[in-house]
Amino acid sequence: MTAIERSRVVAVVGTGTMGQGIAQVALVAGHPVRLYDALPGRAQQAAEAVAARLDRLAEKGRLDTVARDSAKARLLPAAELSELADAALVVEAVLEQLAVKQELFTALEDIVADDCLLATNTSSLSVTAVAGALRHPGRFVGLHFFNPAPLLPLVEVVSGHATEETTAARAWATAAAWGKTPVRCADTPGFIVNRVARPYYAEALRLYEERAADPATIDAVLRESGGFKMGPFELTDLIGQDVNEAVTRSVWESFFQDVRFTPSLAQRRLVESGGLGRKSGRGWFSYEDGAPAPVPHTAPPADPPSSVVVQGELFAAAAVLPELIEETGIEVIRKEDHFPGLPGLLELPCGTPLLLTSGEAGDTFDLPLIHFDLALDYRTATRIALAPSATVAGESLRTAVGLFQALGKQVSVIADVPGMIVGRTVAMLVDFALDAQARGVASAEDIDTAMRLGVNYPRGPLDWGGELGAGRTLHLLERLHVEYPSGRYAASQALRRRAAAEAVSSERTGS
């Protein structure tokens, strides 16, 4: 299916930040663009704002002056909805209210030609529901851009219940022609990104509510160990606590209050107190003039051990740790089954084992031990979280801290919580992604692409899950489910089936 011809008009209804951004994208791609807003004078103001941004792009050398002048000449504000009659595509970016959107599109049906595509930029409403009021819902599609639309490459192309394949295919091709990276998805709550991303915020809030660590520390561990660009607390402060909480609540209600999507009481109280984030000057952190930057808990310097015992093979990315330890000059001694029944681990000279988190709290075991958190890449990670069980001696903990400091890592000691920070967050992201794939929300490739480009994840969750292994991920969630038997951590059927298939494959290959 071919994209809409560049000579054809693209209309944008709604002239807020998203509407202006979408108009700019279509202009730079070569289309004539008409801007319309129901409030008198707003379309003209928006056109002037878009033109000013084009000027700034030209000043910075990101757009040549000929292209800028041509784009500005193709940008026209519309005083009446009827002026959109010759549009080949209308993209709506108005209030997130179903009745408002339905009224707009029913009016547009009487104005535009039969071959005009109608698209909504909604992030929280059902595309099917918006199209439900139309006589010809087959030409209706979701085109969900991410803010700021001119900069972020991802566009979710959402097919409602009645969307025709040719409509979705043409919308996808058009977004691609505009230089975006479109992904196809079904009309389910949250689409891809806002559905799969929920655990990133939810687990951080849960950890805070459990007093596992403070917001600055949780953010730092997810950034510096997990490889995420921003921690969930600073990210929701940027998004707006009210906006993030509203999206969470919308997805939760759309899934009939499924416990896996339950909103956070702590976040609700923050919103009720007026702590909306950067825009209000205060959220999880303060943004007043002169306010200090958030400081994560970091353990003071400690002496490393002279040697470490390695039992078995450490799992996934942690397999590189013995090599990193040897590179520091610390002696690595290999022993098999030094702690029968435990998986691959590191043992300190005092006899305390260090285990990669696998979902159990340390106190589940009958001996003092220290869990260390999952890292995206232990060689490049700059911070590691440690969780000692209650019976670990202070000197043993200091030695463990010194070991990871010798590897060039800052160390955050957190409470002994199941799954720790990165481990439980990534396990939930993997499970949500597998569940979305199994339910036909989107393909595996599109899910990973959406999460990398839409929210800047360091890896797609399905790719990351492939490295961790379905069995390991399932074990972690099953242990969390034992600790928190609410159903929140009940693994999806998709993960269970993947783990079973993985086990059969391992038996056949003898690995």
Describe how the helices and strands are arranged.
Blueprint: E1 9-13, H1 17-28, E2 33-36, H2 42-59, H3 65-73, E3 75-78, E4 87-92, H4 98-109, E5 117-120, H5 127-131, E6 140-145, E7 154-159, H6 165-177, E8 181-186, H7 193-196, H8 198-209, H9 215-224, H10 232-239, H11 241-254, H12 265-272, E9 307-311, H13 321-327, E10 331-335, E11 345-347, E12 353-356, E13 370-372, E14 383-388, H14 394-406, E15 410-413, H15 422-438, H16 444-454, H17 461-468, H18 470-483, H19 493-509
Parallel strand pairs: 1-2, 1-4, 2-3, 4-5, 5-6, 7-8, 9-10, 12-13, 14-15
Antiparallel strand pairs: 6-7, 9-11, 11-12, 13-14
Tags for this model:
single chain; N-(1-d-carboxylethyl)-l-norvaline Dehydrogenase, domain 2; 511 residues; Rossmann fold; Transcription Regulator spoIIAA
Structural features, described:
By secondary structure, this protein is an alpha/beta fold. It has 19 helices and 15 strands. The protein has an eight-stranded mixed beta sheet. Strands 10-9-11-12-13-14-15 form a seven-stranded mixed beta sheet, sandwiched between helices. The two termini are 45 Å apart.
CATH class of the largest domain: Alpha Beta
Question: What is the typical, i.e. mean, pLDDT?
Answer: 95
Query: Whole-Å distance between the termini?
Result: 45 Å
The Cα radius of gyration reads 26 Å
Given as residue ranges, the uncertain stretches (5+ residues, pLDDT < 50) are none
Looking at the overall shape, the CATH architecture of the largest domain is 3-Layer(aba) Sandwich
